[in-house]
């Protein structure tokens, strides 16, 4: 049988194959389009919707790293929202009570306690407050605050009530501040039990041991006391342990301690105590003299206007009987300012008439370097060598003195730099020549009504030594360890003398513990009396 020509053959199989491939192509295209569209929607979902989730997760991570204090400072934290609502709710409690709405006040108080408990738990566990924890409290407080507002406790009423309570709180705070200052002053003036015990034991030694009294008589007229080839220091105090630390620290840091002479003046009550202590202790060959201020018969009211004022009835009434007068700061009524020992610094040439140069030390200082180079300093004809304090957080003349008084404004520069008592080198020859003590007397008489200065020995010192003070390198005398907790360690380490000026003395419980070791290392802890009294 003859085959047909190619043009006439049935193309059945070829047509079927084309349809199949066409359908497959169409399905492929549709599938690709559907895939692209689906992928596009998925991408949008990942971009738009989880952004907030990721942000919330990131915020949650950051949130978890914050402690409660940081969380309270965050504007988005639940803790801060609760704290702010609690503050507002407390105000509404006061207003509700004033309007006799005790039930609302009770509801607010109960919810506030719940919020405070939540904040306390969060602080203890050091974790942030979650939404689940915060939401019930926030909702409860919000509804109660709205309820209070609906009860006509409007913003004007709230502001007036809060203003009156703020004024009452300010008055209470001021009263508490004055009371705290008075308590601090009393603490600073008191003597710790262990030091009182030590003084009692030493007084017993002085009264019962005649050998001590004989030894004191032998040393009373030592030629070393008037030898100007030696280095002389004077301390005026009734605090035995404080004076002991001053002398111990000076001797311990001296290159030649045997060339040092210490002159102590105390009152009649502590005279025997001081002698019993210093005669029984060794100070590396240095000489220690103790004098009784009551033996200075020349220092009386007829010679010294300072003594006359200190002994006057008005002065004693001002310092002792005026404690109820709150218009005057408690520090202005400190009885130490009428204690004659504090004023002896202006009579050094009369106390030591044969000496030419001397270093004055307060009893609340610690010596850390050899002080003998002070005696070779050139004071350029000045009387007083002292560290100026106007570069510190202290004051210039106008801060100490009343420049509205024409007597002051006409003679002194209000911007003149102040200086410090506590470590001073005095040229006694220049002192006598300039009659500094007479100048001191003049200003004491002018200030009889306390119109020029209020208290202390520094203001009359600034007047008496005006124009006669040689500024020393600040490293000779660093102040502030009795009140400033932030004195630079480098400054302390470089200082020849550190001064615990202020109420927080190192021998008191009211002290700055950071500085106490600087003072305590010079206390003779091996002394049997100190060991016996340590438990008191």
Query: What is the succession of H and E elements?
Result: HHHHHHHHEHEHEHHHEEEHHEHHHEHEHH
Unreliable segments (pLDDT under 50, ≥5 consecutive)?
1-16, 36-65
**Helix proportion range:** 40-55%
User: From the helix content, strand content and strand pairing, which structural class follows?
Assistant: alpha/beta
Give a verbal description of the structure.
Helices cover 52% and strands 8% of the residues. The protein contains 21 helices and 9 strands. It has a 7-stranded mixed beta sheet. Helix 10 links the parallel strand 2 and strand 3 (287-292). The chain is elongated. It starts with 11 loop residues before the first helix and ends with a helix. 27% of the residues are buried. Mean pLDDT is 82; it is low at 1-16 and 36-65.
What's this model, at a glance?
One of its GO terms (molecular function) is glycosyltransferase activity. Helices cover 52% and strands 8% of the residues. It is α/β, with parallel strands linked by helices and 536 residues long.
List keywords for this structure.
cell wall biogenesis/degradation, 536 residues, 8% strand, 21 helices, GAUT, signal-anchor, disordered N terminus, alpha/beta, transmembrane helix, transferase, single chain, elongated, 52% helix
């Amino acid at each position: 049988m003859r085959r047909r020509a190619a043009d006439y053959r049935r193309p059945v199989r070829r047509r079927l194959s084309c349809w199949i491939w066409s359908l497959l192509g169409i399905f492929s295209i549709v599938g690709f389009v559907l895939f692209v569209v689906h992928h596009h929607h998925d991408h949008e979902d990942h971009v738009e919707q989880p952004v907030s989730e990721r942000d919330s997760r990131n915020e949650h991570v950051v949130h978890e790293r914050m402690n409660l204090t940081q969380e309270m400072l965050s504007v988005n934290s639940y803790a801060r929202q609760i704290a702010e609502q609690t503050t507002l709710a407390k105000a509404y409690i006061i207003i509700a009570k004033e309007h006799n709405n005790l039930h609302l006040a009770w509801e607010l108080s109960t919810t506030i306690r719940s919020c405070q408990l939540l904040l306390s738990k969060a602080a203890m566990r050091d974790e942030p407050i979650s939404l689940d924890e915060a939401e019930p409290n926030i909702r409860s407080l919000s509804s109660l605050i709205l309820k209070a507002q609906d009860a006509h406790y409007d913003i004007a009423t709230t502001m007036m009530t809060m203003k009156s309570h703020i004024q009452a709180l300010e008055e209470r705070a001021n009263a508490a501040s004055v009371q705290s200052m008075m308590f601090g002053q009393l603490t600073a003036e008191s003597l710790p039990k262990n030091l009182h015990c030590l003084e009692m034991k030493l007084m017993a030694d002085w009264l019962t041991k005649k050998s001590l009294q004989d030894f004191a008589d032998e040393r009373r007229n030592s030629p070393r006391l008037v030898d100007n080839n030696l280095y002389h220091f004077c301390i005026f105090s009734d605090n035995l342990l404080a004076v002991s630390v001053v002398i111990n620290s000076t001797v311990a840091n001296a290159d030649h301690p045997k060339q040092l002479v210490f002159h102590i003046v105390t009152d009649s009550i502590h005279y025997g105590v001081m002698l019993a202590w210093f005669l029984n202790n060794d100070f590396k060959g240095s000489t220690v003299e103790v004098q009784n201020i009551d033996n200075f018969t020349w220092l009386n009211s007829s010679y010294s206007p300072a003594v006359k004022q200190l002994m006057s009835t008005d002065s004693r009434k001002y310092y002792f009987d005026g404690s109820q007068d709150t218009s005057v700061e408690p520090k202005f009524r400190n009885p130490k300012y009428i204690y004659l020992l504090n004023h002896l610094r202006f009579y050094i040439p009369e106390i030591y008439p044969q000496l030419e140069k001397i270093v004055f030390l307060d009893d609340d200082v610690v010596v850390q370097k050899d002080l003998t180079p002070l005696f070779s300093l050139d004071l350029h004809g000045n009387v007083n060598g002292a560290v100026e304090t106007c570069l510190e957080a202290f004051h210039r003349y106008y801060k100490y003195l009343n420049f509205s008084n024409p007597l002051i404004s006409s003679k002194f520069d209000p911007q003149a730099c102040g200086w410090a008592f506590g470590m001073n080198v005095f040229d006694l020859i220049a002192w006598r020549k300039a009659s500094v003590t007479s100048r001191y007397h003049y200003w004491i008489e002018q200030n009889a009504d306390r119109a020029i200065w209020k208290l202390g020995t520094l203001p009359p010192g600034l007047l008496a030594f005006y124009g006669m003070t040689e500024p020393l390198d600040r490293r000779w005398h660093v102040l502030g360890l009795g009140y400033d907790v932030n004195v630079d360690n480098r400054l302390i380490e470089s200082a020849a003398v550190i001064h615990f000026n202020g109420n927080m003395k190192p021998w008191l419980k009211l002290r700055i513990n950071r500085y106490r070791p600087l003072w305590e290392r010079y206390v003779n802890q091996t002394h049997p009396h100190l060991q016996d009294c340590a438990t008191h």
